[in-house]
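Hi Y.,

Following your request, here is the sequence exactly as I used it, all 364 residues.
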Amino acid sequence: MEPATRMSPTFRRFLLAFHARAGLVAGLLLMIVALSGATISALAWMRRDAVRESAGAGIHDVRMPFDQLIAQARVAHPASALTFIRFFKSPGSLVIVRFADGVQVFLNPATGAPVEREILYGRLNRFLVSLHTFEYAPGGGFLAGAVALAALLLVVTGVRLWWSAGSIRQQRSAALGSRFRGPRRLIEIHKAVGLCAAVFIGVSALTGVPQAFSPVLAGLYPLAGFAAPKAPRNPMPSDGPGLPMEEIARIAAARMPDVRETVIHFPRKGVVSIQATDTAAPHSQAHNYLYLDSATGAELGFVPYARVDLGHRIYLWMLAMHLGELGGAPGRLAMLFGALAVPVLAVTGATSFLRRRNQRLPQS
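Below is the corresponding structure, written out as tokens. Let me know if you'd prefer a different format.
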């Protein structure tokens, strides 16, 4: 059966050269994406209890009205427009107010005081996200998508090269290079780590492509015959101040009583968009969508997760997978392992390639 795994020497040399040079070119960017993504995921996992279950000592079930909390958030960050307010079902959970510039203010629900450690975390998370998506680079979205595609190509070509080496070499790779020393040990470690992490890196890259190439995703929706839920048009938008946020939250709770997390966007063109995640939802991105008239609270539209178009549900599953939110702790650890394997692969691959190249130069 071993010959079936072989490829022609010419094609193997071409594939090996392509894999090595593509890794050398994209290696630094892949490391930036992987390490920033791993840090975001690890911090989110470590902080989940701090935000969702306890806002700190002395917090009880008493909560200030949302409008007062929003006013406190404006005092803490007056320089930008409001985007949404996010809160959780668990008593004492922090209330989060997000602004248009990406800043999030975490508030003690009982006193309305900003939680300083969470403000610092929010700034750190904002920096890491901008690093992960190349937000401040020219054409950052395209660059992030190109890096994700490069990761996919490296996974596919790497696995194909490994597979073409035959069963004996496969067994050696699985031994993490224990039988080799020097430069050869590096490449065997590269193969073994790549083999162990290939699935996780491939899944992370594949699910990251639609996040980066949003125009492509928007174009694929109509081609595939499905679409993401959209806020309906309010036929009679009001110019008035609208309902208090506390009243909007009450209407949302009555419509969706068994939810663990709610996000209420501030009104746009007379419409309040609300996303809520059921307690029994399969993952954190499985939202129900509710749309209200900002002036009267009348329901303009409601799309429970079960009625969301199949294509968009697949996208939401991909998003949850990319964020490491499937499979609980084992799923997050698996994706974290894949991210941390990228720097190892980049360093071992680049080092072994450059060493071989330097060894050939004196001969030529």
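Confidence is low (pLDDT under 50) at residues 53-59.

Thanks again,
Q.
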